[in-house]
Amino acid sequence: MGRQIEGTFIFDGDAATRGFALNAMCFSFNDAANRAAFVADEQAYCDRFHLTEAQREAVASRDVLAMLRAGGNIYYLAKLAGILGLSVQDLGAQQTGLSLEAFKQRLLDAGVETRHG
Amino acid sequence: MAEVVGGVFASHVPAIGGAIARGLQQDPYWSPFFAGFDAVRAWLGRARPDVAVVFYNDHGLNFFLDKLPTFAVGAAAEYGNADEGWGLPVSKPFAGDPALSWHLIEALVADEFDITTCQSMLIDHALTIPMQLCWPDVAEWPVRIVPIAINTVQHPLPSPARCLALGRAVGRALARWPGDERIVVFGTGGLSHQLEGPRAGFINSDFDRRCMDALANEPDLLTRHSSLDIVELAGSQGVEILNWIAARGALGAATHEICRNYHIPISNTAAASMVLEAGLARAA
Q1: DSSP H helices in chain B
Q2: Chain B nearest CA to A1, separation (Å)
Q3: Domain check: are A63 and A101 in the same one?
Q4: How much is the pLDDT for B284?
Q5: What is the model's pLDDT at position B229?
Q6: Given an 8 Å threshold on Cβ–Cβ distance, is B231 in contact with A10?
Q7: Chain B positions in Cβ-Cβ contact with residue A7 (cut-off 8 Å)
Q8: pTM of the model
Q9: Rounded to 10 degrees, what is the CA torsion of B224, B229, B231, B235?
Q10: B129-180: per-residue pLDDT in tens?
């Protein structure tokens, strides 16, 4: 067991091994034809990449934390989120249990401004 | 001999590319970030670089997890951008500088950096967005590029100490390049942000400020941290500051801070830009 950081998934060798199929599917979404094929038949597309049952359920339920637990890497999952019309702020809201407005407001409330030169 | 004129440091949040595509530079949400680039562009106008050596991280466009180099140096004559999956417009390609790339590759391997070399390499938003911020609306990019990708995606990541050493080795090699090019170094990404997990939205402005201060004056301070320390302090994706640390290493011992802009938030990120000129401050 590696180092634990609160509220954080460390994408290490264990996660990369566990998540390979899911991340490979997400990598394929760089291609517009593959995005269309996923939208046309999600189940068939998940079959093609041999997703595990946990990965399949996480994708079907749009559950980002479950995708992460199944080894998904957020840079790759962002490509799936794009197909689903979700921004990284939508993902942040879902993972923190906040409404989108509350998640955005929390970031605005952290606002800092420094400019010189 | 070639001259390293300085370093440009900039966030590369994809949403910035979306804002550029939609012409939102003056929008109240975006303008505090974009305004920071007035001073960057003014400096670039004076510095007149011919070549940019760009430290950045790939987000799953050129590299997949099947083969993921810790450090990869481009050696292509041209670098294309491509669809990354979320609808950003595809950037026009960049000219490379294969002779300079191979000079750096020779020097880095001689310095015992076991790099990957790439004669074909797509560059993603982490490279194209800072370029668009520096040179908006140009028909052709004014610089040739040498991209150097650092793994900030799959742990174990290289340490801050190793990234600073890589940058210093690049800086020594650039100083030996017999051409007469003016070379700017880029470090992209960051600053603090975290996209995934229950801590999504995490930002640490105190740490970011300390990082920017240290980069300007005492970059070795940052080598006290491991990469996992930086994940804890700056967020999972805040670790992209490794690109800034490497770029700072290439600037030599002394730098002079020209400008700095730090703004929270852009999307989920503490967004920043900074220019460090190589060498000591010149008398006014």
Answers
A1: 14-21, 31-34, 36-47, 98-110, 125-134, 160-176, 205-217, 227-234, 241-249
A2: 13
A3: no
A4: 46
A5: 98
A6: yes
A7: 197-200, 202
A8: 0.97
A9: -90
A10: 999 999 998 999 999 999 999 999 999 999 999 999 999 999 999 999 999 9
Specify the 3-state DSSP secondary structure of B2: coil
Computed over every residue of chain A, the mean pLDDT equals 95
Which DSSP category does B98 fall into?
H
Whether A20 and A59 map to the same domain: the answer is yes
- Report the run of H or E that residue B22 belongs to, with start and end: none
Given an 8 Å threshold on Cβ–Cβ distance, is A31 in contact with B32? no
Do B113 and B162 contact (CB within 8 A), yes or no?
no
pLDDT higher than 70, residue A107: yes
Cβ-contact B249, B168 below 8 angstroms = yes
B193 is catalytic: yes
Query: Going by C-beta distance under 8 Å and a sequence separation of 6 or more, which residues neighbour residue B96?
Result: B74, B75, B76, B77, B78, B79, B144, B145, B146
CA B41 to chain centroid, in Å, comes to 16
Domain membership of residue A96 (yes or no) is yes
List of chain B residues whose C-beta atoms are within 8 Å of the C-beta of residue A2: 155
Domain containing A36 equals: 13-85
**A window 25-64, beta carbon within 8 A of B:** 26-27, 29-32, 35, 64
- Could you give the 3-state DSSP secondary structure of residue B217? helix
Other beta carbons less than 10 A from residue A47's beta carbon: 11
- pLDDT tens digit string along B7-19? 999 999 999 999 9
Is residue B10 within 8 A of residue B133, CB to CB? The reply is yes
Q: Within an 8 Å CB–CB cutoff, is residue A107 touching chain B? A: yes
* Same domain? A35 vs A60: yes
pLDDT tens, residue by residue, A5-40:
999 999 999 999 999 999 999 999 999 999 999 999
From the list B66, B201, B262, the residue facing A107 with the nearest CB is B201
Closest-CA distance of chain B to residue A41, Å: 18
Q: Does domain B3-278 have CATH number 3.40.830.10?
A: yes
Residue B182 has what pLDDT? 98
